[in-house]
Amino acid sequence: MLREFYDKFILAYPKTILLILLICIAALGYQARYLEIDASAETLLLEDDKDLAFTRKVNERYGSSDFLVLTYSPKIDLLADATLDVLRKLSADLLELERVESVDSILTVPLLESPPKPVKELLKNVPTLESPGIDKVLAREEFLNSPIYRDNLVSPDFKTTALLVNLHDDPLYRDLLQHRNSLRKKERDGTLSVIEQSELEKVQIDFKNHRDKMRLVEHNNISLVRNIAKNYRGEAKIFLGGASMVADDLITFISSDLQVFGSAVFVFLIVTLWVIFRQLRWILLPVITCTFSVVATSGFLGLFGWEVTVISSNFISIQLIITMAITIHLIVRYRELARLLPEMDQRQLILHSTIFMARPCTFAVLTTVVGFASLVLSGILPVMNFGWMMSAGIGVSLFLTFLIFPVLLMQMPKAMPNTSFESRFALTKIFADITESHGKTILFISVVALILSVAGVSKLNVENSFIDYFKESTEIYQGMKVIDQQLGGTTPLDLVVDLELTEDAAPQAEQEVKAEAELEDEEEFDAFEEEFEETANEAQYWFTAEKMERIEKIHDYLNGLEQTGKVLSLGTMLKIGKTLNSGKPLDNFSLALLYNELPERFRKIILDPYVSVENNEVRFYMRIRDSEPNLRRNELLLQIQHDLNSKLEIPEEKWQLANLLVLYNNMLQSLFKSQILTLGVVIVSFLFMFIFLFRSFIIALIAIFPNVLSIGVVLGFMGWVGIPLDMMTITIAAISVGIAVDNTIHYIHRFRHEFASNRNYLASMRRSHESIGYAMYYTSITIIIGFSILVLSKFIPSIYFGLLTGLAMLIALVAALTLLPQLLIFLKPLGPES
Amino acid sequence: MNGTLIVLFLVCLSAVPLIADDISEIRAMTKEKVDAVIRTLKDNSLSKKEKKEGILKTIDGLFDFSLMARLSLGKKHWKALSKAQRKEFSELFVKRLKESYLDKLDLYTDEEIVVDEAKLTKKNRVEVLTYLVSKEDKKEMIYKLYKSKKKEWMVYDVDILGVSIVQTYRSQFSGILKKESMEQLMERLRSTGELGS
């Protein structure tokens, strides 16, 4: 049927088909303009994480503002006049930027003890470093000892300070995000009405448009801040940090990765094609199919609004590599037929090679698609999207290659192949020799490798430091490192505690004998009770010394943990209050008074982020030192959970942890599960596919084994060397097995074909090595070197991904050319020889 | 019908000047005591200790400390106490309240106290509005008085800048008693500094 389709339709009207194809590709190319990149923190999280919903709630309740951080380490003393002068100028320059609302630095923050003054006097006019009569020696002491400034605004060695560049709030973004999320939640719960459905569609578009607009504004702002900072680099070491800068830089990295990998892989492919085939047409043809495939896929992504994330940033290069592999198989078969059957004309050659390769190529692509599609089970949004994206992309590649190859080749005359490379480079022959003479050794080495791999796999860990995702030369790395080690840590963690106490201590038995006078009193008492009940819930009375005691206890506990950098809470403010109150804790009355009298702008800074009176709730905001090598995120969270319950005796339902550390840890902890799930599904699917394809359980097992070994060795290697599983490396197993099985399918397909003709295992092996072996060898080398190009990335997981996938492919190739034939010869699954 | 109205009207008429008289008397009494406290504070011939003793003497007749103790604990908890406990609680609380009040007086510098109007809020309740006036601003303080069984007007709460002293203690005690026993609260009151207030 397929033969008829090709013969009567495709090869009969090649020009028309080519024209239609060109029109379609052009249309999709137009859509490719809409291809977008998303590098927001949300892309790095689990999709259905309950903690994510809670974290959003906490951010909504306590507010979170957007800011950039400039770390500033002068060559001279931090409080020297010259340094302060530069800081003043730098702040003024920053303030001129449209996006910048204010700049907080050592120059602007209130100094409360330099020198110490009575509270009343202090409140009249809160001094700063700029106020006349400030004692710098005392100011230095204050910066270094203040619970709010130390490890936050200045480093403990007093060599680095931070400038907090507060950006204007974007209420529209927040509103749109909230609206979208609430509608999405309804959609998930299945309670979305028809009107809300259209509302959701609209808000999603509005959100995206606004986000894209703001992203440009943000990008420009960051460039401007960088330019300003550059002017001051002579005086000090300056780094830029902050969430929006990380997101912006990531987008830049992704765009550059897309371009660099894309073009590097492209150039590399052309060189490889020339080295192997030495004929212009075998360069042009693959280049055209590859280009068309990538353009078409990008068009689809743009059309459906799928965004490229940091994980899928290498989709272009992977698609190029895989499209190339399919095309090489077709070319090798064509060349082989042209050499063996010189009497065939061009149309016959094309028809035969296309039809012969259709089945194995479709299966090979299907297995690769299964490999990528399994990533959808990971539960990690960017990994899932990557899986969908690549599955669709490879489907497009298969479809287009099997159309473009025949119709384009029809436009060219028949040409005899130049086999100079094959004859000079006989690696497959060497593998055939080894398989024949050292069969047992191959089996033995494979078993040993498997055992070592299992031991290595048991050592795998998921502890990832976010900072280590970036090369040391990047500003993200340098800036985060300074903030992490000198200024109190980078990964935020929130603890929210409900302070409501429901259990009353049982009142003692009422006095039964009442004096007359007492009864009279009671009426009076009731009247007073009513009066006080009326105002009992007013916010200022919330701040009781007993609550503050509990808050301070929790604060001190969190602060005492080795892994926490800066801890900020109402407890911090209480400590400052205590200092100002000559060492005595603030009493209930002062607290209530403070609450009532605090000016709005101070309340926003010192109360609103840490206390929600109406919810009877407080928030402890911590930053964790991400670059600490001994940091075990999961263990830390478990320890805090345990201590809150047992040491601090807060019932479990009264507190909850939130923010990035929790979300990040959830993602990391899900990696093991995702890895086992995706790989398990891939292997089981392949087993069924092989049984279907080869109609033999034994052959299916034989086909699976070399691939399991290759990925086992790679995972084992990661375990032994200590490379952690991360969002990218968990995809290696599924992807490389998906690609590597192509070799197995092609080889067994060919082996059976050869075996049918003379029923001799060894001879079939030799002939398979000499035919399909080349194609396997070329495609694998192309894939290996193609993936290795990812080392050019600035994103470390991409580098690991490239190198380790390359390693997996190399092992798979060697196994497919040694272990696989040896197993076939040893187990004789095709029946007895004759 | 008309007769009843006239009688009611007359009653009201006669009641107003009576209370108005009462109120101006209360205002005058409050002013007198407050002025006395300020005088003592400003008197440089007195030592700190003498000042404190003088002030306590002045306000002793004005403040109903034992009522404040009862109100601060709240009816539910107060009723649960034995006579001896009530006595001890009142003593401890009053001592604490006085200390805290005197501590706050240290913050006083040169403000003037203006006693503004007094108004009847409920039957037997009067609020006297006063201002602490300094060069920069004016802070509001309300003395809340009630007519005691001995027919004397006495202060049962003071509201400073919208914060009631009694209410502050009430919220604190009820918070503590949610997780601790009365005995533990007493212990906190006995040992200074354990309460924070």
Structure description:
The complex is a heterodimer of chains A (834) and B (197). In chain A, 65% of the residues lie in helices and 7% in strands. Chain A is built from 30 helices and eleven strands. Chain B has a single domain (2-191), classed as Tgt2/MlaC (Nuclear Transport Factor 2, Chain: A). In chain B, 58% of the residues lie in helices and 20% in strands. Chain B has 197 residues and is of the alpha+beta class. The interface between A and B is large, with 43 and 45 residues.
Descriptive labels:
heterodimer; A: 834 residues; alpha+beta; five-stranded antiparallel sheet; four-stranded antiparallel sheet; 11 strands; 65% helix; 7% strand; B: 197 residues; Nuclear Transport Factor 2, Chain: A; 7 helices; 5 strands; globular; disordered N terminus
Strand order of the largest sheet of chain B: 1-2-3-4-5
Amino- and carboxy-terminal Cα gap of chain A: 34 Å
Give the C-alpha Rg of chain B: 20 Å
Identify the CATH architecture of chain B: Roll
Question: What is the tally of helical segments of chain B?
Answer: 7
State the helix count of chain A. 30
Give a nutshell description of this structure.
By secondary structure, chain A is of the alpha+beta class.
Topology at a glance:
The complex is a heterodimer of chains A (834) and B (197).
Chain A: H1 2-10, H2 14-31, E1 36-37, H3 50-62, E2 67-74, H4 81-95, E3 100-104, H5 119-124, H6 136-145, E4 161-167, H7 171-189, H8 194-231, E5 236-241, H9 243-277, H10 281-304, E6 307-308, H11 315-340, H12 346-373, H13 381-409, H14 420-424, H15 427-437, H16 439-457, H17 475-486, E7 491-498, H18 516-535, H19 545-560, E8 564-568, H20 570-580, H21 588-597, H22 600-606, E9 611-612, E10 617-624, H23 633-646, E11 655-658, H24 660-694, H25 697-721, H26 729-758, H27 761-770, H28 772-788, H29 796-817, H30 819-827
Parallel strand pairs in A: 1-6
Antiparallel strand pairs in A: 2-4, 2-5, 3-4, 7-10, 7-11, 8-10, 9-10
Chain B: H1 2-42, H2 48-60, H3 65-73, H4 75-79, H5 83-105, E1 112-122, E2 125-133, E3 138-147, E4 153-160, E5 163-164, H6 165-179, H7 182-190
Antiparallel strand pairs in B: 1-2, 2-3, 3-4, 4-5
Helix pairs in contact in B: 1-2, 3-5, 3-6
